[in-house]
Amino acid sequence: MRIAECGMRNKKSEIQNPKSKIVHPNLSVDFAGIKLKNPVLTASGTFGYGEEYADFVDLNRLGGVIVKGISLKPIAGNPPPRIWETPSGMLNAIGLENPGVEVFLREKLPFLRQYDTAVIVNIFGCSVDDYLAVAERLDGAEGVSGIEVNISCPNVKAGGMAFGTDVKATFELLSTVRKATRLPLIAKLSPNVTDVTDFAKAARDAGCDGLSLINTLLGMAIDVRTGKPRLANCTGGLSGPAIRPVAVRMAWQVARAVSLPIIGMGGIVTAEDALEFILAGASAVAVGTANFMNPRAALDVLDGIEAFLAEYRPGVTGIEDIRGKVNIT
Amino acid sequence: MNRLHKAKILAHAPIGKSYYRLVLRAREAAAAALPGQFVMLRVTENRDPLLARPLGISSIVSKTSIEIVYRVAGRGTMLLSQIEPGHSLDMLGPLGQGFPLPDKGVIPVLVAGGSGFPPLHFLSTRIGSHAHLFIGARNRECLPPAGILKSFRENVAKVHIATEDGSLGKKGMSTDLLRDYLDRAEKKDRTTVFACGPRPMLEVVSRLAAEHAVSCYVSVEERMACGVGACMGCSVPVKEGGYKRVCKEGPVFDAREIAWGLKVIVPVKNVRHQS
To answer: What's the pLDDT tens digit per position in B225-241?
Structure first.
């Protein structure tokens, strides 16, 4: 049933722009049962808990905020240096620093509830029981629209990617979390696998409602003068425009393989970047590392998508009209 | 307060042999900035380099403009140095926690290492003229440019200089000068140290301050991505356990908070807020 309910329902918008007389596209999306006013979200780990950016942008304009990963207990994170800039990208090994689910519910969520934007909570753990406990704690919390399960963080030994690079472990973890919550469940997939569609299918079979892809690509940089890795953790996750073609390819492959709706992410800076993911088959997009360059990045993407649909695709009334329409004939 | 701006470059030129002086029109920052705070500047409209650069504010030039003095230390600051007056830069700020301004009875002792002097210059414009300043650099070329040194001399009671090669001032480090000063200082209970420079220097300054039971604030450097507390990339270990964000809880910390002993890989070119 959940799968059948997925996807987007756009209606032709009646709103007229008096200046241009262009029909404004209806950008609202029903993503896996989550009502998004528009398809532009901020990716987990790149927008804190919203409050960090509230001084710079109007959070009400965002389709949604996927908050930084939350675990059962607080996690201190990795020693510095945690980041290193690379060509059109960056490596990070933050180590999933977070205050834990109780502090999140008590101190972070109430702030986000003030805004008219969907809140999707990214969760992770070191064991299946950890994931389960966080999911149970979030189920029924006011103001939580959905859960994104991080099975793909490359920077923590015990959790994250250990699940996301093993099809059987992915299925078992997601099946267990599925039983713990009625909230829409989104699996965030790792690109650090041979065939990402195997994992998409496992997530579907486990009862997930949607997919996020991609998480960061495992990378490394070395200071040749000292011979030491640039990151204290040695390896880290590569993000930013450098990874976008990989992400678009994976979104396309997964969209063809499963019918679950996809939040496409990986290096989106502009509306054109975001539209690549939508043409590849994504129903929504998340802006990540670009938030660090420009706090307005997600809003710029949103404005650009609207302008693109209005100006360059006459007759197109919403995202659904172009979703998956990459022309490969 | 909206802290996202297009800041027009009013002046931008080399100053001394090692530094650039950048004056930005930034009305809100000029009104609100506190010594020790910084701004994030994008150095290109392209995607490489990707991240904005954190740069300390060195003074408020007028009601509508701020001054930044920086050293070209990598590709980001190299690109920044080529942008001409008249252009505008994407700017976030002012950001972070500045130095706590000392009360009237306090003797401020400022310690600057390498290119870490700009925030202390801003501080020197906001404190009484009874302050002492200790500046250390590799050689005379790396000392603050003449204009800044002159301004320092106007703002504080005495400027003490050390260079590692002895090309100007005393041969040695700023921390050597500080040690001599603190050894002889009276009124230690009314002395407060404010320091900015490379991490090894800050560690020594913090230890000296602790040995003399003098309160001490340090402006810490770490690589940053967002500058606003979201990415957790700039966190440093603290004694109470865990980490604090240089961009949000810092860059100025009470020196006693920092867990100096914990192993940190210090980059070879360890230059404040630049890459």
So the answer is: 999 999 999 999 999 99
Is A26 part of a structural domain of the chain? yes
How far is residue A47's CA from residue A67's CA, in Å, rounded to a whole number? 7
> How big is the A-B interface in CB pairs under 8 Å?
129
Query: What CATH number is attached to the domain comprising A154?
Result: 3.20.20.70
> Which of B202, B262, B221, B38 has the alpha carbon at shortest distance from A77?
B262
Q: Are residues B20 and B152 in the same domain?
A: no
Could you tell me the residue range of the domain that residue A282 belongs to?
A: 2-77+91-218+240-321
Residue B271 lies inside a defined structural domain of this protein: no
Question: In angstroms, rounded to a whole number, what is the distance separating the alpha carbons of residues A23 and A25?
Answer: 6
Q: Is B50's CB within 8 Å of A291's CB?
A: no
CATH number at residue B42: 2.40.30.10
Q: Are B268 and A83 a contacting pair at CB < 8 A?
A: no
**The pairing of beta strand A235-239 with beta strand A89-92:** antiparallel
Q: What per-residue confidence (pLDDT) applies to A22?
A: 52
- Largest CA-CA distance found in chain B, in angstroms, rounded: 55
A316–chain B nearest CA distance, Å? 30
Mean pLDDT calculated for residue range B17-31: 95
B91 is a domain residue: yes
What are the backbone dihedrals phi and psi of residue B197, each rounded to the nearest 5 degrees, phi first? Answer: 165, -165
A100 touches chain B (CB under 8 A): no
Q: Which of A46, A90, A269 sits opposite B51 (nearest CB)?
A: A90
> pLDDT tens across A267-311, in order?
999 999 999 999 999 999 999 999 999 999 999 999 999 998 888
Q: Does A56 map to a domain?
A: yes
What is the ipTM score, two decimals?
Answer: 0.89
Looking at the DSSP assignment, which residues form a beta bridge with residue B133? B110, B159
Longest dimension (CA), chain A: 63
> Is A234 an active-site residue?
no
Residue B220 lies in a domain: yes
A238 vs A235: CA distance, rounded Å: 9
Same-domain check for residues B73 and B125: no
The predicted-structure confidence for B101-158, as pLDDT tens digits, reads as follows: 998 889 999 999 999 999 999 999 999 789 999 999 999 999 999 999 999 999 999 9
With contacts defined as CB-CB under 8 Å, which chain B residues touch A287? none
| pLDDT tens track for B29-88 | 999 999 999 999 999 989 999 999 999 999 999 999 999 999 999 999 999 999 999 999
- Judgement on whether residues B83 and B140 belong to the same structural domain of the protein: no
Looking at residue B203, which CATH number applies to its domain?
3.40.50.80
In a domain, A84, yes or no: no
Please give the sequence-ordered ranges of beta strands (E in DSSP) within A9-163, or none if there are none: 29-31, 34-36, 40-42, 64-70, 83-86, 89-92, 118-123, 146-150
Q: Do B165 and B57 lie in a common domain?
A: no
Looking at the complex, report in whole angstroms how far the Cα of residue B64 sits from the nearest Cα belonging to chain A.
Answer: 20
Q: How many domains is chain A built from?
A: 1
* Count of domains observed in chain B: 2
Q: Is the pLDDT of residue A3 over 60?
A: no
Residue A59 CA neighbour count, 13 Å, CB half:
23
Cβ proximity of B253 and B218 under 8 Å: yes
Q: Is residue B274 part of a domain?
A: no
In the block, which residue shows the tokens 């979703």? A323
Contact (CB, 8 A) for A104 and A68: no
**Segments forming the whole domain that contains residue B202:** 107-257
